[in-house]
Amino acid sequence: MPPYDPENLFAKIIAGKIPCHKVFETEHAFAMLDAFPMVEGHCLLLPKYPCADVLDMPPDVAAKVLGELPRLARLVKLATGADAVNIVNNSGEAAMQTVFHAHFHVIPRFKSDKKPVTLGASSKDMITAEAAAGVLGKMKEPYKESLSAIDALMSEIRAGSVSAVAKKAEKPPAPAKVEKAAPAKAAAPAKAAAPAKEAAPKKEEKPKKEKKEPTPKGTGGAPKAAPAPAGPLDVSYADIRVGKIVDAVPHPESDKLYIETIDLGEAAPRQILSGLAHHLRIEQVKGADVVCICNLKARKMGGVESNGMVLCASDGEKANLAFVTPPAGSKPGDRVTWEGYPGEPQTPKKMDKDKAWEKIQPEFSTSADGTACYKGVPFAVAGGVCSSVVKNGIIS
After folding, report:
1. What single DSSP character describes residue 95?
2. What mean pLDDT is predicted for residues 101-130?
3. Any idea which of 92-106, 161-175, 232-246, 379-393 has the lowest mean pLDDT?
4. What is the number of other CB atoms lying within 10 angstroms of the CB of residue 375?
5. What is the pLDDT of residues 332-354, one digit of tens each?
6. Which of 188-192, 236-240, 271-275 has the lowest mean pLDDT?
7. Which residues, 6 or more positions from 391, have their beta carbon under 8 angstroms from its beta carbon?
8. What's CA 113's distance to the chain center, in Å?
9. What is the spatial distance between Cα 118 and Cα 88, in angstroms, rounded to a whole number?
């Protein structure tokens, strides 16, 4: 293998020195139409990292680049209506590699195709701008958010509520109260200016006292509900229940998310979104017995609303991930409890306001035998404990 040439064709395309028909670009990968396509929709996926072939690609680079292959394959099928795709890589001159910058071919295939794909029969004519525009027009990026934005959102979802949304929602009420108070103060001088002698000041004082009293009562309305926790913020704030995933489908705009329909013992199943697509096959998700937190505020992920979170255990690097599962004999709707924490679950609004999930979740873990715990106290339900195949892991 010759040494990597930083001036190779693909390196120049990635650097913007040579024009191309780009499909999408991320921090680590670059996808484009093949300039000499075998068939319409033939695409290439390139790592931005300077590697001559797959054998020259570091593992972390490979993980980030290959993670985009499903995305590109879906776009190719979407644009061409193909029944399937071939994903081909040539590593080395003997394998017919001609440009020594690692790359992957994504080639649309149809049931009517009879011959296997070989990469020796490219078109003799370079793709025209018109033909490229036609294919790219069909291959418009369906994602509403960038992959990095989805990654950031998923991190916040795993940690709990997306606090930025809550803060924006809490700001409007404050100005509204100030505006209401302002007219009252403005009205007072008007009455004082009227020829009402000394009676006017007395009337002014009464309304002021009356207005000051409701304000503490309004704020004091919360203390009436406050006794419910009966102690410091702890895991009893969380409404965690046994559930069963009755159905799951891929998110239409994110290759990382599943949309799950979960029976939680309620009148109707809940819809919850989980970032499991890169860890579990959809067949492993459908029908799974799970444990869910049910009193988080609803959040939209890629335009689809999620009403809760499925709890999973993983190792520190999230290389291994698995469901936290309830014990045998439990049923959807059974509530998880923790010995020594007798409080009652709070409302989603209260959870969000107190940032309860952010404070509770870091204390979740699995023990050496896989038992799910909060500060070392097991998740108990139906006479047993919840557990995971991931041992000494974190739960989120």
Report:
1. G
2. 80
3. 161-175
4. 13
5. 999 999 999 988 899 999 989 98
6. 188-192
7. 366, 367, 368, 369, 370
8. 38
9. 9
Count of other CB atoms within 10 angstroms of residue 303: 11
Q: Specify whether domain 9-142 bears CATH 3.30.428.10.
A: yes
* Phi and psi torsions of 140, nearest 5°: -60, 135
Integer Cα distance of 335 and 351 in angstroms:
17
- pLDDT value of residue 159: 57
- Beta bridge partners, 32, equal 22, 44
User: What residue type is assigned to position 382 of the chain?
Assistant: A
What's the DSSP call for residue 313? E
pTM of the entire structure? Answer: 0.45
Separation of CA 358 from chain center: 16
Q: What is the pLDDT of residues 16-71, one digit of tens each?
A: 999 999 999 999 999 999 999 988 999 999 999 999 999 989 998 999 999 999 99
Cα–Cα distance for residue pair 249/35, rounded to 1 Å: 35
The residue to which tokens 């009879």 are assigned? 114
pLDDT given at position 311: 96
Contact yes or no for 243/386 (Cβ under 8 A): no
Residue intervals of the chain classified under CATH 3.30.428.10 are 9-142
CATH number of 235-395: 2.40.50.140
Provide the residue type at 71 as one letter: R
Phi, psi of 305 (to 5 degrees): -80, 140
Residue type, 154: M
3-state secondary structure of 107: strand
> CATH 2.40.50.140 in the chain, residues?
235-395
CA 371 to chain centre: 26
